[in-house]
Predict the 3D structure of the following.
Amino acid sequence: MFVWRLFRNRLPTKNNLVRRGVLPFDARFCVAGCGSAETYEHLFLHCCTFGSIWHYIYRWLNLSSVIPFDVGDHFNQFTAAGGPAKTRQSILQVLWFATTWEIWKERNNRLFNGKECSILQVVDKIKSPSFLWLKAKIPSLPFNYHGWWLFPLTILGIG
């Protein structure tokens, strides 16, 4: 449900809440304090705080990329990095889902609890659920948590 809402710009970002009249116009700014309006593209891709998580994920995967403007384009580009094999793309989809979910959770933690994790802590939080989700989705994958943490693309045969 979360990703469906993300792709359709239906998450309660500050910009969407201002547009719906729930928040006043001056409350539209990103919770990271970067000074930009909190749109879904900004929050998940272009924020200097939350968007930087992708740079760490790409570095962990030993990939390089330019972040596109659109969330859907980013999803397609990210999953295509696995090549034409459906299993590889599926693994990268799970990782993309885990990353966006952790960004959303960190945003909400900062907004509603006044607490924040470092970006590296958020990246570490992405590695754990993505491993668990992958093992649940594809139990036959021949890797363990330690291997996933250190060499994630090796299990894809592209690392």
